[in-house]
Amino acid sequence: MKFFKSYTGGLVVLAVVIVLSVLLGSHRSLVSERAKVEAQFASIAGDLQDCLDITANVLTVGGRYLEEDELAGLEGSRNMLSDWHGISSGYTAYTRLQEEASAVLDALETCALTEKDRQYVQGFRTDLAAEADTIARDGYNAAAEQFNRRVLGAFPANILSRLTFVAGAELFA
Question: Nearest 5 degrees, angle CA 168-CA 172-CA 173?
């Protein structure tokens, strides 16, 4: 207890308080800024939900003409996308969904479809392409890159982010 009542003890306590307050304040500020960037991902998340809805319709039409094993890949990728955790894993699931949906649509185009189902298949392909274009033009990745480069890449945040375990914003790529 004598140490804390001494001049040296007071300086040590003061230094510890300052260091902790800088670290905690930095952590809170950097996490808050990253959360603002990641909030912009909501528009992509909405587009991903639209892709899930479109592919549900693809499965409905596909169920009329294709075998279950031909639709299994699309069903699996839909499940993967609906259960994604994290932006980069969402991108992986989305990429797989696009590939599987394209394969099912290609298989459907070789079938003897009714005129109405042929129009549906063409509409599904168009809708998925439109969603892909919308996602590609979204500004989230640019905002995440800017945060990672300009905020976390600049002094003193580049040091404080490592000390406080603040990771960069995930890219949807």
Answer: 105
